[in-house]
Design a protein that fits this description.
single chain, alpha/beta, Alpha-Beta Plaits, DHBP synthase, Nucleotidyltransferase, domain 5, eleven-stranded mixed β-sheet, seven-stranded mixed β-sheet, globular
């Protein structure tokens, strides 16, 4: 038998060993670079039972894609054994992501009589580090960062005992022979005493700690202390962006947040992601963790070290990525003292090396889970394609970058890389591309990239493609968004695509972001978009939404339109400068962006004039909308046709919002009306396109659909018109999913 899928690093060989003994079969099992190979002999009935159980009883983290079976004459084996791994040129094996601490290991670290009591690196075949320690395949200890730790006799006995759950657990270790902790101050000087106790005391005293985890460092502090949180924000240069919180148990989480059955299931899953939960009034977690938001990003502890710290502090802890804003997460002991020396007061280090950086994954749950950031415990598990692909490298977008490598039916969508705005992140990108190419034996023949000429990922693609003589495949940003949604839903036909986001380079040279297409893997036709307006000051209008509001007002309502009664906060002389920029079209590119429309309405309603993080103005506008409402009023808009393309005219909408503001209508009412209006806008344009094309499937993609209220309203409005609606689940709707769409489009691109 040849078994393919995620069958290494998940206890598969020990499982096969026990199964063979259960059915009295002889032979062997071994890892190879491309599969797990099994040879067994015995009675026909035993072989049939073995084969059935191989699929039905596989370890929980295994994923069997295929089992190839061939029969031969018996060879007279006298026992069943695990054979040494076999390396095969060019073959590749799916790699297991890291897995949260299992219940058995958790019991051991809290049992005083156990030899692993309070040992922060406890793991077994059912849990622990995988992807972050793998240097190459097949997955064996010598090819992991655990190779420098020689197992003691007791650990070796466990490793060799088929009845032990640590049988062939590659990261197996204990306090005698495994990795160890060290707590140091900002000068690198060790702190005396028990490390867990000392670190917990520092956290309770309001200190900020850099804690080495599975895929890099977290910056941690007391989540109930406004002083500690604001100190962390100031040092990290992260003023308003929400911070994730780790809470010890589900029961504790429910003291702070509302938790649905589906959210509970996701929180307690082996992947243990951050889940955005509805924040309860009365929670003692400081509002400074997530200012002006209804939702709190929460996760359970997923390593023994986390469990020990949460138990000893008795506090919910902020656990945010260990970096300065816009840089990749720190992963090595020597770099962290330099990079985070101005942020953390103390450093909780260990001597198990991290091979791959790994941020935490982030999910929301509506009717079903939807990923916002795909990283720890999900990557590098592939996205399955409904076709066999060429070997392609797709380099992704600028913000929330991921890359994607394809081979056969697999799309290896990388973990979250970050915003490609500096050399450090580019270096992380390049290193991770090389790791994936090595692990999955991929030599790209095509390199795909975004059409935006200034993206670092695009520049990398053009340079790497020219150097290696690869075929180059430029891909329009929003086409990639729609195709990523199609692949997420295993759809191959033509769809109506609605791509709403902040920025994307359009084929007419303008900035797109409010687009209506008909699309498939081969191409797209732009059949509608939001009305173009100028972006006064370019990047400045994104960071200062009041500028965007003025762009809408003056371009749609006239330069003499009065700003009386509007809460737009301008610095002296700025208004005349903005008018000149608009009048002369100086640094004021045209945009159809839905994200910028949300920014403008947020600024007009007095919600957010300037932003500290991406989409803050739109997020805070969404947060104001009430939960329970009767049928709302809609803002007016019109749809006109221009050269076969439907343009959504927005002047009436902006004028009506201004009217509501002057009439002192609450921002919460404006928010709700606006969200309902945008959902109606989407449904009406799609209905017109469907009337001509006959297409009844609509794919919703782009970062604007991270807005839970808009997504819910848009789906309801579209389904009310009889559409089948596709949204994202396995792949982010934001730019983290763009590389997948790029790879698929490049695969079908005509030479």
């Amino acid at each position: 038998m040849t078994v393919r899928g995620v069958v290494q690093g998940v206890g598969f060989r020990p499982f096969v060993y026990r199964l063979a003994h259960e059915y009295n079969l002889k032979g062997w099992v071994r890892n190879t670079s491309g599969s797990v190979d099994i040879e067994v002999e015995g009675s026909k009935k035993s072989l049939e039972n073995f084969l059935g159980a191989l699929r039905s009883q596989a370890p929980p983290m295994a994923h069997i894609e295929a089992v190839e079976v061939a029969f031969d004459s018996p060879k007279g084996y006298t026992q069943f054994q695990i054979e040494p791994s076999l390396s095969r040129e060019g073959q590749y094996q799916l790699v297991s992501p890291d897995i949260a601490t299992c219940d058995d290991c958790k019991k051991e670290i809290f049992s005083p009589a156990d030899r692993r009591f309070r040992y922060p690196f406890t793991n077994c075949t059912n849990c622990g580090p995988r992807f972050t320690i793998i240097e190459d395949i097949p997955y064996d200890r010598p090819k992991t960062t655990m190779h420098k730790f020689k197992m003691c006799p007791q650990c070796r006995r466990e490793y060799n005992d088929p009845q032990d759950r640590r049988f062939h657990a590659q990261p197996n270790a204990c306090p005698k022979c495994g990795p160890s902790l060290e707590l140091v101050d900002g000068d690198g000087k060790a702190v005396d005493g028990d490390v867990i106790t000392a670190a917990s005391a520092l956290l309770k005293a309001g200190k900020i700690l850099a804690i080495k985890g599975l895929g890099g460092f977290h910056l941690a502090c007391d989540a109930t202390s406004e002083v500690a949180i604001n100190t962390l924000r100031a040092r990290k240069r992260r003023q308003g962006k929400p911070l994730a919180v780790m809470i010890s148990t589900l029961e504790e989480i429910e003291k702070h947040c509302l938790v649905s059955p589906e959210e509970r299931k996701l929180l307690q899953s082996p992947q243990c992601p951050i889940v955005l939960l509805r924040w309860k009034k009365g929670s003692n977690i400081s509002p400074a963790v997530a200012p002006n938001l209804k939702y709190l990003g929460v996760m359970l502890p997923y390593t023994p070290l986390h469990h020990l710290l949460l138990n000893e502090t008795g506090l919910p802890l902020v656990m945010t990525s260990g970096n300065i804003s816009e840089e990749p997460i720190a992963k090595d002991n020597d770099e962290v003292l330099t990079r985070l020396g101005g942020i953390a007061d103390y450093f909780l280090l260990h001597n198990r090396d991290i091979y791959a950086r790994y941020d935490d994954s982030v999910y929301v749950v509506e009717d079903m889970p939807q990923v916002l950031r795909r990283a720890r415990s999900y990557a590098p598990y592939p996205i399955f394609l409904p076709f066999k692909s060429k070997q392609i490298l797709a380099c992704g977008a600028e913000l929330k970058n991921t890359f994607c490598l394809t081979k056969d039916e697999h799309a290896f969508l990388s973990q979250h890389i970050g915003d490609m705005e500096n050399e450090e992140t580019l270096g992380h990108f390049e290193d991770t591309v090389e790791l994936y190419k090595k692990l999955f034996r991929i030599e790209p023949e095509v390199i795909a990239y975004d059409m935006h000429p200034e993206y670092l990922a695009t520049k990398y693609a053009l340079e790497a493609g020219a150097k290696a003589g690869l075929k180059l495949a430029p891909v329009q940003h929003h086409h990639a968004h729609i195709v990523s949604c199609m692949v997420d839903n295993m759809i191959e036909g033509r769809v109506i695509g609605v791509a709403f986001d902040g920025t994307g380079y359009g084929i007419d040279g303008n900035i797109w972001g409010g687009e209506f297409f008909t699309a498939d893997y081969l191409g797209f036709k732009r059949l509608g978009h939001l009305e173009y307006v100028p972006l006064p000051g370019g990047e400045a209008a994104i960071k200062k939404p009041y500028r965007m509001a003025l762009g809408y007002i003056y371009s749609l309502l006239g330069e003499d339109f009065s700003l009386e009664g509007l809460p737009l906060r301008l610095v002296p002389n700025e208004l005349e400068l903005i008018k000149q920029q608009l009048r002369r079209r100086i640094n004021s590119p045209l945009t159809s962006s839905a994200g910028r429309l949300f920014d403008a309405v947020s600024a007009l309603a007095g919600v957010r004039q300037e932003i500290d993080y991406e989409a803050q103005a739109a997020i805070e506008l969404e947060m104001l909308a009430p939960d329970e409402v009767s049928a709302p009023e809609f803002y007016p808009f019109s749809i006109v046709e221009h050269q076969g393309v439907r343009v959504v005219r927005l002047g009436e909408l902006i004028s009506a919002v201004v009217g509501d503001v002057r009439n002192q209508t609450p921002a919460s009412v404006i928010s709700l009306r606006f969200h309902h209006t945008v959902a109606r806008m989407i449904a009406e344009v799609c209905k017109l396109i469907a009337g001509e094309s006959g297409i009844t499937q609509v794919a919703l993609s782009g970062g604007v659909f991270q807005n839970r209220l808009l997504l819910k309203l848009a789906i309801a409005a579209l389904e009310g018109q009889g559409f089948n609606v596709l949204s994202h689940h396995l792949v982010p709707c934001n730019d983290g999913g763009v590389s997948l769409g790029q790879a698929v489009i490049a695969n079908f691109a005509r030479s």
